[in-house]
User: Which sequence fits this backbone?
């Protein structure tokens, strides 16, 4: 009972976890899945009904999908890449005509089989398609569904898992280690010991950051190697990954340091560290795509530093969308610098 | 009464400082440590309450006092680990708080309760420190100096208490400092480990190092220090060599009589002498003139109680210490509470 703060947070922590998971998985009921739709059936000849328009409206009215229209002149796969999305629907040209003429025609559903959004969209489109087929032709198979993916010849679950897991390792290893190290060293007076040498606290923190950058790069290479050689993953490796591998460990190393610095005991530090780490781990799109979460959680994710790292890694490795990745890099840089400076300023080598 | 003397003493030292500043400045070589009117308060608590002392080149200076006397606060201010509230401090001519970075290159420090990375052995630790200080050292030589050559490859976590302290000493020597700070170097060690550390410290003194150490072990201060400052409640109540302190604050001699508490009380009641009973059969009488001894013995004889062996001895530093801080210190540095008349008299003094 001496460590009231530790006890309090120890009790609060499981509650927070329940709230997080509850919120994440309640997403399917309350939130909508965003899907891009390109209707290529733009000029329907006069006597025929605009079936493609009706089809789009039907999709829209399900309250499952949030349909974003894409102009027919756009290159659709490029458009999806630019918006870092894998979910899209194409209604082909002459859709209405073929429907009226009872000629089979297929809509194409783009998606990443590894993401639950893909299943939701496929299910919805399938439902609408059946409805249209039943309504007019007694269930005969006029409208069918093709599936396709963006950016990959043969997408595998592991392709989409790797960026998330890299983000996870960038967060977890530096963060937990530094929370522990900073609190333990403070308790065991090791900082005091080090302060008696010519080493400055800035040098010490910088060396820790450097260490975790190297560690994260090694772990990155291992994960990519296992992904490629064991699971045959197909991912893009470019220099644009480097900023994330440097700024990420720097950010979380400093954040861990900050937590250990401002807390009074090792126990409290560890609990506060968990409270910061776990929600961030699950809400930044690491294991679950943001799109399955309710809107308010998606908005909340934008304040989490890890969000920009995971989003950036996805933009680079999966979507090849460097323009969007640059924004993520900029945001990550600013957050990393702010936290690093705060940690370096606040943490004390010696007492007043 | 004792505090009165101490205050007078401090007052005199302050006066000397104030009246002869030019003499100090003109000294060829500045003393390694110069402290005047040093203050450090934690809220209401006056941890260090205006103390002044100097440590001279090549001497071992002991800060002696019970726990909470302000020893560690003082030494940590000198090391540049804590900020002072007031007063002047010069260590090797530097302000330890403002120039801590410079100072740490020149001094060696063993902090109280020295700890280190658990998975490092003494040799690795020394090499690590040598890197930090950017100096070249022979680890084995340093380990020989601190009598730790037998545990070169044992991890810190597996070292005994005494060995850990020796490793702390070894690390404080890496930058070949002329001035060493040892904060309670033997606290918590068994007597033989303590003696081993004493040997190390004597060896360092023989090499010409200036050493300031804190301790609550009277014997340690007596054994190692050239000069001692006795601290109590943030103030220095006596300083000087053991002899000087005894001369200044002690009575010349004590007469010891083997006898009962009853006899002690009888002597106390029938003479005007200061009589102590140690609870184990020895009555101790402060003798300021030869006639006092006769008076004590006369009273003993007159009591018709049994008494045995008698002897006289000079007061030890311990006697003076007990008198000055009004209590014996136990193994852990706490003042034993049997004599607690101090609290009332003391607060008036502060």
Assistant:
């Amino acid at each position: 009972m001496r460590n009231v703060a530790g006890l309090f947070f120890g009790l609060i922590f499981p509650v927070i976890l329940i709230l997080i998971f509850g919120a994440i998985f309640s997403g399917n009921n309350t939130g909508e899945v965003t899907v891009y739709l390109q209707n290529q059936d733009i000029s329907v000849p006069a006597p025929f009904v605009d079936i493609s328009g009706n089809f789009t409206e039907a999709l829209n009215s399900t309250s499952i999908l949030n349909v974003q229209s894409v102009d027919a002149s756009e290159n659709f796969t490029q458009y999806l890449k630019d918006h870092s999305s894998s979910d899209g629907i194409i209604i082909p040209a002459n859709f209405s005509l073929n429907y009226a003429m009872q000629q089979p025609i297929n809509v194409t559903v783009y998606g990443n089989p590894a993401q639950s959004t893909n299943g939701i969209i496929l299910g919805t489109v399938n439902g609408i398609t059946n409805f249209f087929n039943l309504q007019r032709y007694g269930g005969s198979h006029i409208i069918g569904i093709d599936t396709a993916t963006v950016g990959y010849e043969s997408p595998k679950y592991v392709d989409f898992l790797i960026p998330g897991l890299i983000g996870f390792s960038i967060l977890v290893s530096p963060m937990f280690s530094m929370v522990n190290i900073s609190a333990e060293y403070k308790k065991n007076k090791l900082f005091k010991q080090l302060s008696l040498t010519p080493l400055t606290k800035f040098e010490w923190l910088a060396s820790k950051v450097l260490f975790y950058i190297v560690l994260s790069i090694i772990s990155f290479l291992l994960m990519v190697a296992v992904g490629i050689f064991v699971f045959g993953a197909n991912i893009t490796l470019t220099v644009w990954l480097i900023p994330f591998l440097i700024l990420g460990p720097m950010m979380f190393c400093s954040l861990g340091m900050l937590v250990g610095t401002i807390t009074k005991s090792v126990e409290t530090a560890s609990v506060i560290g968990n409270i910061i780490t776990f929600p961030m781990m699950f809400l930044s799109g690491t294991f679950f795509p943001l799109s399955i979460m309710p809107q308010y959680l998606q908005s909340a994710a934008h304040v989490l530093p890890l969000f920009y790292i995971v989003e950036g890694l996805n933009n680079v490795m999966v979507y090849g969308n460097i323009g969007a990745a640059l924004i993520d890099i900029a945001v990550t840089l600013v957050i990393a610098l702010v936290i690093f400076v705060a940690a370096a300023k606040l943490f004390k080598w010696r007492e007043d | 009464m004792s505090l009165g003397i101490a205050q007078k003493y401090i007052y005199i030292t302050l006066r000397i400082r104030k009246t002869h500043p030019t003499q100090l400045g003109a000294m060829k070589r500045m003393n390694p440590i110069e402290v005047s009117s040093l203050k450090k308060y934690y809220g209401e608590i006056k941890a260090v309450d205006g103390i002044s002392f100097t440590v001279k080149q090549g001497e071992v200076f002991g800060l002696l006092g019970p726990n909470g006397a302000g020893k560690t606060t003082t030494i940590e201010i000198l090391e540049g680990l804590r900020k002072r509230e007031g007063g002047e401090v010069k260590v090797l001519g530097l302000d330890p708080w403002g120039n801590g970075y410079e100072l740490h290159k020149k001094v060696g420090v063993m902090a109280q309760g020295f700890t280190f990375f658990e998975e490092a052995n003494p040799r690795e630790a020394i090499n690590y420190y040598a890197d930090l200080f950017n100096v070249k050292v022979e680890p084995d030589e340093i380990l020989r100096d601190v009598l730790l050559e037998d545990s070169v490859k044992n991890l810190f976590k597996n070292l005994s208490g005494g060995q850990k302290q020796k490793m702390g000493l070894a690390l404080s020597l890496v930058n070949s400092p002329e001035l060493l700070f040892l904060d309670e170097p033997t606290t918590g060690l068994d007597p033989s480990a303590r003696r081993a550390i004493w040997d190390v410290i004597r060896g360092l003194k023989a090499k010409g190092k200036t050493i300031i150490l804190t301790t609550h072990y009277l014997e340690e201060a007596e054994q190692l220090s050239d000069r001692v400052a006795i601290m109590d409640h943030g103030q220095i109540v006596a300083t000087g060599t053991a002899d000087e302190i005894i001369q200044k604050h002690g009575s010349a001699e004590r007469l010891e009589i083997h006898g009962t508490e009853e006899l002690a009380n009888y002597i106390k009641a029938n003479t005007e002498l200061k009589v102590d009973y140690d609870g184990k059969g020895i009555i101790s009488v402060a003798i300021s003139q030869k006639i006092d001894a006769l008076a004590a013995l006369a009273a003993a004889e007159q009591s018709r109680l049994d008494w045995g062996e008698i002897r006289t001895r000079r007061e030890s530093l311990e006697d003076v210490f007990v008198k000055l801080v009004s209590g014996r210190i136990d193994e852990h540095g706490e003042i034993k509470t049997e004599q607690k008349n101090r609290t009332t008299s003391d607060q008036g003094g502060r």
User: Anything to note?
Assistant: The radius of gyration of chain A is 25 Å. Chain A touches chain B through 14 residues (CB under 8 Å). The CA atoms of residues 188 and 313 of chain A lie 38 Å apart. Chain A has a mean pLDDT of 83.
